[in-house]
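S-adenosylmethionine:tRNA ribosyltransferase-isomerase, pasting as requested.
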Amino acid sequence: MNVDLFDFDLPPERIALRPASPRDGARLLVVNDAGLHDRVVRDLPGQLRAGDLLVFNDTRVIPAQLKGRRGDAKIGATLHKREGPRRWRAFVRNAKRLRDGDAIDFGEGVTATASDRAADGSFALEFEGDEPVELLLDRAGRMPLPPYIAAKRPTDARDADDYQTMFAAEPGAVAAPTASLHFTPDLLARLEAAGVRHATLTLHVGAGTFLPVKAEDTDDHRMHAEWGRIDRSTADRLNQARANGGRVIPVGTTSLRLLESAAREDGVVEPFEGDTSIFITPGYRFRATGGLMTNFHLPRSTLFMLVSALMGRERMLGAYAHAVAHEYRFYSYGDASLLLP
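C-alpha cells follow.
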C-alpha cells in the first residue's frame, strides 16, 4: 500500500510533552460500531465487559541513550537491541566518524568498542569491564525519550518515573509501552471489581519504533526485530478467556504485536520466546486480538498502519480528525483510544 494513504494533518502542538496527572485522568476516545465517544481513562471499567482480559507489557525502560567521544569526535548512541551479555546493537549519531574497532568513552568509567556496522548505519557496541551493563547504563545513560519530545525539551528527573509503567519489571526496553502509562493501582482494582482481568507478557521495545517509514510502499518497509516472551501459564490464561467468551484486549501496540506473533491461525496463543518483526497493515487477519487500547500515533507511522488494519483506514482517519479537532494529546505522553472492532 502507498504510505501516503496513512498521512494526516497533525499540528505539532498536539504532541504532548508531559503526561496527564493523575495518570488515569488522561482522555480516552472510544471507537466502536456505535461511533466515537469522548471519555477519560478512569471510565475504562464501564467501557469493557466482565470476562474481558487486558494484556500489558511488563518490559522496563533502561537508560539507553549515551553521549561519548572517540578522540575529538562527539558520538551519540541509542541502544535498541541486546545481542549478548555485554553487546548491544545501537543507532549512532555522527557515525561517519566511527570505524569498526574504535573505542568510545561515554564517561563515568563506561567504554564500549564498536564493530559490525550494518546497512542501516547501526553498530554493535561491546561494553568493557566486568560490571553488569545495566549498572554502567545507570551511571552514564539517560532515559530515551522519543525524538518528538526530546527535540522540544531535555530529559529530566521527572521522566525517570513518568516514562515507566506500573507493570515495569523486566529491564530491556528502550521505549516505554506507553498505553500502559495511564494505569494506576486504583484503576486496576476497579477493573478487577468489574470482572475485567489482566495478564502480562514481555516485549523489549526497540528504538526502531521511532524510525520513520521512508519507503513509498509498505511492502518495502522492514521492521527491526524485538525480543519477546509469553510463558505457558500466560498463554493458557489468554486462551481460556477467549474460550469463555471474553475479549483479549492488548494495552499497547507492543502487546498486540507479540500476541499476534504467538497466535496460530485458529487464534490459539502458543508460548513464545524469541524475536518478532511482525508488520501489521490493512488486510491483515487478526487471530487473537479482540480490541486494543493505545495512544494516538504519528502520521505515516507503522503504528497508525496497525490501528488502521484493526479498525479500517477511513474510520481511523475520521477518529484522528476528531481527536485533533477536540484537542486530544498525541503520542507517548498523550491521551488514549479504546478501539473495539
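Note for the archive: The chain is about 20% helix and 25% strand.
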